[in-house]
Amino acid sequence: MKRKIIFLLGAIACFGIACKKDFLNHPSTTAPTTDNYYNNATQVDGATGILYNAVWGDWFDKAFTSVGDLLGGTVTGTQGNDQYNSFYNFNIQGTDGLVSSTWNSCYKAAGQASVLIQTFKAKKELLGGGDNTAFLDRGIAEARFIRGFAYFYIGRAFGDAPIVDNPLDLTKPGAYLVPKYHQKDVLRFALEDLQAAADNLPEVAVQDGRVTKYAAYGMMAKIYLYLKDYTNAAAKAKLVIDYSNGPGKSVLDLNDDYNGMFTSSAIANKKNKENLFSLRWLSEMGWNGGNRFSIYAAPQPLVHPKPTGGNGYSAVVPSFDMLDPATGYETADKRRGWSVMQQDFHKDLWKNESFPNGFTYDTTGRATDDHFIFTGTRSNIQKYIVGPNRGADEPVTPDGHTSMPTYILRYADVLLIYAEAVLAGGGSTSDAGALAAFNRVHNRAGLTSVTVLTNKLILHERKVEFAFEGDYWFDIQRQGFNDAKTIIASQERGTLNSNGQLTSFKATLNSEAQLFLPIPQAETVQDPKLLEPAVDYYK
């Protein structure tokens, strides 16, 4: 935790990153202070922009997929791959690098947001408040939204965890020894941030990609669902749905182009009605803020030949559990073709040195090279892959960075949250509103409407709708240990050998502790209080 303090104290001086688009175009400044800076909306927006980007880099690098999808069983990794293997088989240790990456990014984002909250509050006092400081109120609300999400993720990933409202307080002697607080308090803290954000954010984003009042309501609905507070989950989700069905129809709805939303940064980033909250990446920022998912997930023949020339390691690929129509994408589900690449998959737009007439996915070479791909499940993830560099139309850097965003909350999620909240843990429901919400998502995938909803049906819909988006593990986790154990035990996580023979692997949950990540050992060494039982944050 002490290392985080050092970062946080320098946070205000970190907004000079040069970009060329949208709100990631932070103004170049030298040591801005409350006295000489944050005098207008442009300066405040430049500071909050980084909360959507670089602070999440370590988590998004590999931990995003490992926590949400490897644990959840929607993807499988190469057996023996040290980066992913402990998540593949639930043998996670406090010394694992991806555990630290998750912890560090979440607390970095939360801490930087906290510093901005305190800074903007101080600036508001200097300016005397009133209507002329409305831009600061919006900046505070935006920072509280990001902090709320960070603590929601911390609570889901780690369970009991520290809460730091004002990082500057930790500079006092001994104050960096922070205890763990109960998970319920961590989530309550997140809800309070999100409610404050909802109270002060606009209904329509001031720039594409910034969070709004309805993004905050939607995130609150997701937390309430996680807590099994179905009444509040339904109420918050309905606020979003009613807005979409009414005055917000032109700015909030399902995107008709599901595939394009995940394979075109232009479709994803520009007036994307389905996007409520996403992390925003720019290819030209490279390792400091570009989307590097294709480096790990794309097939080599797609991104290695020119004009891109990067690598596609296929380190994580769709699992057989997802590819089996009995457990994953059913035969008529269009999301399979929109989310996965398999034999004979073709895309005209994806052209490179080896595929001048468009990319065709071919496994017949029985080995991976610049023309053939041969993964353990003979498939690759299509989501978040934009293909080879196409210049201004779809820039991809030579080392594989793109401008695709990472979706954290989509309108489809709110619709399914509402359906599940109405079901409220019961056996089934035929409620018209719940069915309408569910079937909007279901029908977009080319599937016929259902007339009765069950928890099993909704959970499966979430699995196929949000596969490879870093979230399914938490849907399993919130079912409770016994159900989670059964779900995990039923999943095929194995891979094929070179002769096409399956090496089956079924993971096992042995204890409730495995539902959460361990606190990184490096943190417990510096802060022994983290090894003690959790205490109450709210007295």
Automatic annotation (TrEMBL):
Compartments where found: Cell outer membrane
Keywords, ordered alphabetically: Cell outer membrane, Membrane, Signal
Pfam family, one: SusD_RagB
Parts of the chain that traverse the membrane: none
Signal peptide boundaries: 1-20
Domain SusD-like N-terminal positions: 82-225
A GO-annotated cellular component: cell outer membrane
Keyword Nucleotidyltransferase assigned: no
Source taxon at top rank: Bacteria
Domain RagB/SusD, chain residue ranges per copy: 306-530
Name of this chain's protein: RagB/SusD family nutrient uptake outer membrane protein
Organism (species): Mucilaginibacter terrigena
